[in-house]
Amino acid sequence: MEKMSRSAKLRDLVLNTTVPLIINDFPLNWKCFEGSLHDWCERFDLEASQSPVFELMGLTDCSSPQWERKRTRDNQLRSMQQFLREYGVLDEEQTHWAAFQYKRAQELPATCRQGIDFACFGFPDHGDDFALWLGSEQANTPCHYDTFGVNIVVQVHGSKSWLLFPPEAPLQSTRIPYEESSVYCLENFYAPAPEKIQHYKALAPYAYHCNLQAGDVLIVPRHWWHYVEALSTSLSVNYWVPLKADMDLALDEFLVKHIVESFVKGESDQLKEYLLNPNQLADVVSTPSELFAQFERAVQNMESGQDNRKLWDTDFLSATDCRNLLTNINLNIEQLEVMPKEEYNLLLENNSKRIKPNSQNPSESTPISSTCEFLVSSMCAPRVIAGMKREFFRRLQNDSL
Asked: Same structural domain for residues 324 and 212?
């Protein structure tokens, strides 16, 4: 193998690994994160044009995954420094976790993102297309996989637990709540119900896990399921590397979008808030013809290979080449391995204890019947959408003969 720079080697590993990679103590030199988390929060408060908006989630709301639709806005928490004072340490009086998550680069003050550059991982053309995640202990993202890209996650402060499963793991996919480019599952890893614990334990052969510490980097391969939970007050930054292999999946997402939106047209706000993730509520296309026009443009872009971003190839290295890169990259980097069964079961049992016996856990109201919910999830299941797309292109090809 010809001589390569470290960033080029790392880029090739990111694009070709088939299992998650963790890099311990990565030599990151991003100016905005020099100093403590308090320093970063202080700069944010001084320079932000408006107060940050934090979301709250009840610690005992365990009846289902802690979907974003169940969160509330905190109108009293008006600064980053106040967040650190009130949520920096989880104590017995705490009733909620708080988070300022999934914030794009343009939502942050300039000095709070100064120097962030994924060129050190081999991707200089990221165009500031990264996201920031800040949350208190127990802040979590329900288990899901990202439709697009390979995920590079940099843990800047605090620590997070990452529970990951490969694409073939038999998790129960759902598109309720619907979020463009995210496929959720119904498994509630925040608080597995005791009566369902055997179902969860049966997933042990597929479970990978790591506790990401400050200074660590995690590479999440394409379409890997992940449940992420803060173990302490945590700040991380991530970038999804855009892939050529994902271009045709834009069509899948348009099909799902059309199906979900057909169920919410003319319905109550309550139903819309149940079916759609909060960030999708303002993005409902007004007419089916507009959605079809978007679909046609996506088909044309896929057939022409056009995209405004730099797209990357994957799977161009053999397993042997990847192993050689791992041993010759001069970084503290390793492949994650399947979690020991005993550790996985202990994690499930500990999380299950969050469901307190005889406690009054809030239950979420469901404005649609379970039958209707099953119908939406069935119509939007990835394999069903893939079958629809194959049939569409079969007809398109026959029409051109």
From this structure: yes
Asked if residue 193 belongs to a domain, the reply is yes
268 and 171 fall within a common domain: no
| Same domain for 265 and 176 | no
Counting beta carbons within 10 angstroms of the beta carbon of residue 82, is it exposed (0 to 12), middle (13 to 18) or buried (19 or more)?
Answer: middle
Q: Please write the tens of the pLDDT for every residue from 36-58.
A: 999 999 999 999 999 999 999 99
How does DSSP classify residue 339?
P
Sign (positive or negative) of CA dihedral 46, 51, 53, 58: positive
The reply to whether 1 falls in a domain is no
Query: Which domain, by its residues, includes 282?
Result: 249-306+369-400
| Half-sphere exposure (Cβ direction) of 300: Cα atoms closer than 13 Å | 6
Cα–Cα distance between 112 and 156 in angstroms, integer?
12
* CATH code of 19's domain: 2.60.120.650
Integer CA distances (angstroms), 244 to 212, 311, 384, in order: 29, 5, 22
Q: Which among 1, 4, 2 has a CA at the least distance from the CA of 329?
A: 4
Residues 147, 222 within the same domain: yes
CB atoms within 10 A of CB 122: 21
3-state secondary structure of 163: strand
* Per-residue pLDDT band at 125 (split at 50, 70, 90): confident
Domain count, the chain: 2
Instruction: Count the residues in the chain.
Output: 401
For 238-275, what is each residue's pLDDT tens digit? 999 999 989 888 889 889 988 998 888 888 999 999 99
Name the token pair of 11.
Answer: 């880029």
